[in-house]
């Protein structure tokens, strides 16, 4: 009998607890439903300057509509995130609300690693080869590759290059940039990267007059080793400024051309 009483009391307590939790949950939901959005707070997770807090506010005002005064549980957080991530310079947006009536938005900008410039037309790429437009008032401090860029990028375009050969060429340039940044001594030796017709690369090194013909962005460690060999072995045997171009694009060859030929 005692066991029956014991289990009955336990059942009553559990039932009462469930009723209490349901009541509390309903009250919390009702209270939340009464909360409204009072303001927007924008936070940037990086130091880039492609977009500003004012840009985000104006963009949401124009594309989302009123959110101040809207019930917190009615604010379209997923819609806001998708909308902001549709901007070319925004890589990720995270939106949430807090009980003090604040709509929070965290912005992670797309970080460029290279800028490509063909005359007045240019674009950035990130480390995955994602293309996005230049900014009208902010220039990212990244290396510039300029000249006859063999990639067709319409004004304002964002996304990967549309042609497989173009994607492969950009991937090769990114691999070269990685090599320059990781190989000892090369990061501060490259002064200028130029592209001539056909996508071939020409390099100018700091403190040197020669132009180094690298060719297509492939087999880069071997080509840079040949440049090193030229500088360490061949160049010292000739007067300063003797050669105009040094061609290292062919396997196991270093072809030097004098300035007067």
Please explain how this structure is put together:
The protein is α/β, with parallel strands linked by helices. The chain folds into two domains: 39-109, membrane protein fhac (Ubiquitin-like (UB roll), Roll), CATH 3.10.20.310; 114-258, Rossmann fold. 33% of the residues lie in helices and 26% in strands. It contains five helices and twelve strands. The chain has helices spanning 2-34, 53-63, 77-85, 164-182, 220-234, and strands spanning 39-44, 90-98, 102-109, 114-118, 121-125, 131-133, 144-147, 190-196, 200-205, 211-215, 243-247, 255-258. The protein is elongated and about 95 Å long.
CATH class of the largest domain: Alpha Beta
Number of strands: 12
SSE pattern: HEHHEEEEEEHEEEHEE
Helical region count? 5
CATH architecture identity of the largest domain: 3-Layer(aba) Sandwich
CATH domain fold name of the largest domain: Rossmann fold
Structure, briefly:
This protein has 261 residues and is α/β, with parallel strands linked by helices. The chain is built from 5 helices and 12 strands.
Give a topology summary:
Blueprint: H1 2-34, E1 39-44, H2 53-63, H3 77-85, E2 90-98, E3 102-109, E4 114-118, E5 121-125, E6 131-133, E7 144-147, H4 164-182, E8 190-196, E9 200-205, E10 211-215, H5 220-234, E11 243-247, E12 255-258
Parallel strand pairs: 1-3, 4-7, 7-8, 10-11
Antiparallel strand pairs: 2-3, 4-5, 5-6, 8-9, 9-10, 11-12
């Amino acid at each position: 009998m005692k066991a029956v009483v014991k289990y009955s009391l336990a059942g009553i307590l559990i039932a009462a607890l469930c009723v209490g939790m349901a009541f509390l949950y309903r009250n919390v939901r009702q209270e939340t439903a009464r909360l409204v959005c009072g303001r927007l707070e924008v936070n940037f997770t990086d130091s880039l300057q492609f977009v500003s807090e004012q840009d985000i506010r104006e963009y949401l005002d124009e594309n989302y509509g009123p959110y101040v005064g809207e019930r917190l549980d009615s604010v379209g957080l997923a819609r806001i995130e998708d909308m902001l991530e549709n901007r070319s310079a925004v890589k990720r947006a995270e939106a949430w609300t807090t009980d003090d009536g604040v709509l929070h938005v965290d912005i992670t900008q797309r970080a460029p690693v290279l800028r490509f410039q063909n005359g007045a037309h240019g674009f950035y790429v990130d480390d995955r080869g994602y293309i996005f437009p230049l900014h009208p008032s902010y220039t990212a401090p990244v290396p510039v590759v300029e000249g006859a860029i063999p990639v067709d990028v319409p004004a304002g375009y964002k996304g990967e290059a549309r042609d497989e050969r173009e994607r492969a060429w950009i991937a090769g340039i990114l691999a070269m940039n990685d090599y320059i940044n990781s190989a000892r001594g090369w990061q501060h030796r490259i002064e200028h990267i130029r592209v001539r017709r056909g996508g071939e690369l020409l390099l100018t090194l700091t403190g040197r007059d020669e132009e180094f013909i690298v060719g297509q962005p492939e087999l880069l460690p071997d080509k840079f080793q040949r440049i090193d060999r030229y500088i360490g072995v061949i160049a010292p045997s000739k007067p300063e400024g003797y050669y105009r171009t040094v061609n290292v694009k062919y396997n196991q060859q270093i072809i030097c051309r004098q300035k007067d030929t």
